[in-house]
Design goal:
This is DUF1385 domain-containing protein. By secondary structure, the protein is an alpha+beta fold. The protein has ten helices and four strands. Helix 4 crosses helix 10, helix 6 runs antiparallel to helix 7 and helix 6 packs across helix 9.
């Protein structure tokens, strides 16, 4: 199964064995690919974190520092640290603008059913920006559980309810799509208007090059097998 991920500098595609990434540095697209290991995952998350604008990094550092301080010294607590978990759950809605464009480009590559090539860039640009498999689905399920319980239960229990519905959305998607289609309609709306933006050429080319590299590596693995 091919999965995609966007960050503020590029797009990557991966399966269980390998990931391929295209990222923009000083206006130039750079490509790299690696077999998935613990080191690769660490390298990836460092890249994602440090690709955010400086004010996102500062804000997230302050949030983490506050959670640690409130845990070690409860007298310092001003706002329940569990609200940080709610912020993390809804982070899709506050993606940086450039990340939303890379996210939109990733979706368009997935939505394009023809052969993925640079010659198809124009067709990819016209593809649907909504992706049925987007992680926004899980964000919606988190908030379904959270919002239905936040006025009735302590905050930590509401967050737990959100995590429970998120897990239900992860493992029970087949049945939930059949009986709870409203959540996926919400996800489509949020994807179109909040978690993606119409990409520019550089974002589309980055996403497409990442996918082409991934397919090239996977084809080489098939030939070896």
């Amino acid at each position: 199964m091919i999965m995609g991920m966007s960050f503020s500098r590029g797009v990557l595609f991966h399966d269980r064995n390998v990931l391929a990434c295209a990222e923009v540095k000083d206006g130039v697209i750079h490509l790299w690919a690696e077999k998935i290991t613990i080191r690769t995952i660490g390298k990836l998350w460092l890249r994602i974190f440090f690709s955010f604008p400086w004010y996102y990094q500062l804000f997230h550092f302050l949030l983490a520092a506050y959670v640690v301080a409130a845990f070690l010294y409860p007298s310092l607590e001003v706002v329940d640290p569990m609200w940080v978990a709610v912020y993390i759950g809804g982070f899709h809605f506050v993606f940086p603008s450039v990340m939303k464009k890379f996210h939109g480009a990733e979706h368009k590559v997935f939505s394009h059913y023809g052969k993925k090539s640079m010659d198809a860039l124009g067709e990819v640009a016209k593809a649907n920006i909504v992706n049925a498999g987007c992680s926004t689905n899980l964000v919606v399920w988190f908030f379904v559980g959270f919002l239905l319980t936040v006025l009735l239960l302590p905050l930590e229990w509401s967050v737990a309810a959100g995590i429970a519905t998120l897990l239900a959305g992860m493992f029970g998607e087949r049945y939930l799509r059949k009986y709870c289609g409203f959540a996926y309609k919400l996800s489509e709306f949020f994807q179109k208007h909040f978690t993606t933006k119409e990409p520019d050429r550089i974002h589309l080319e980055t996403a497409l090059r990442s996918y082409i590299l991934f397919e090239h590596i996977r084809e080489k693995e098939r030939q070896v097998a």
